[in-house]
Design a protein that fits this description.
The protein has eight helices and ten strands. It is α/β, with parallel strands linked by helices.
Length: about 260
């Protein structure tokens, strides 16, 4: 999602730098705040430095295309009404101005009003290789919505398997969607791992289960606000390494 233009940097200043009036450091995750202030000191000799971003200022109430994100990434709403215990998105849902883009990173697009969703889909009709990277809430998938999705050039849509109760909604969603999106490459699913009393064995069972349903799972390893991973760290990271690589996932499942 990070910008890839010539004025985007991800570490220390280079030896020969262009002249800048101002340097902005955008912080996405809370555990990177300390690093951001360290980077501020390293860049202050280039130009005045400002620190901001989701981890500092929250989601905000506007979205500016190409600002701190890659070309094509867009966000038409912020916040979410669910307030899940493992999620850091706590602010109320708010619809934003719709800007063109093919990669939507809304926290919960389908929780928006019907008119807003329709307007977003209308914008997406002019886009190629549409990705719903922010994810869809499975319980909000309907036949009507699927008909709307059929009119888009979709590369992938994502869902989430964050807790056991969501499994029934995922089953219902794929039952509806698979009539038109039959290949699992269309249907990704973020699978939360390592939250509270989770174990490596339980997480792997969920990953296998969601694969067999027809989704391509992506293991998302939980980190707390300090950025700490669950223990045993090596086992969790090994599991994540396998279940974030489609080739490794398909190879693993051939033996099952």
């Amino acid at each position: 999602m990070s910008p890839a233009d010539q004025d985007a940097y991800f570490g220390l200043p280079e030896l020969f730098m262009p002249e800048y009036d101002e340097i902005h450091i955008s912080v996405v995750f809370t555990w990177d705040i300390e690093k951001a202030y360290w980077l501020k000191k390293q860049w202050e000799h280039i130009a005045p430095v400002k620190i901001g971003g989701v981890a500092i200022d929250g989601e905000g109430s506007t979205f500016i295309p190409d600002m701190y994100v890659r070309d094509g990434v867009t966000k038409t709403s912020v916040g979410c009404p669910n307030s899940c215990g493992w999620c850091f998105v706590k602010q109320p849902l708010k619809e934003l101005e719709i800007h063109p883009g093919n990669n939507l990173i809304d926290n919960n697009l389908l929780a928006c009003s019907g008119s807003h969703v329709e307007n977003v889909f209308q914008m997406l009709k002019g886009q190629k290789k549409v990705k719903f990277t922010g994810g869809f809430e499975a319980s909000r998938i309907t036949e009507k919505l699927t008909e709307q999705l059929r009119g888009l050039n979709i590369e992938r849509m994502f869902f989430a398997y964050d807790h056991l109760a969501s499994l029934k909604h995922l089953k219902s969603a794929i039952s509806i969607l698979s009539k038109y999106f039959k290949h699992r490459n269309y249907l990704g699913c973020y699978v939360l791992m390592g939250f509270k009393d989770d174990t490596v064995e339980k997480a792997e069972e969920r990953l296998i289960e969601i694969y067999r349903l027809g989704f391509l799972p992506f293991g998302m390893l939980y980190r707390n606000k300090k950025g700490e991973f669950p223990e045993p760290y090596k086992e969790w990271r090994s599991l994540q390494h396998t279940w974030t690589r489609p080739a490794a996932i398909n190879s693993f499942m051939k033996g099952k």
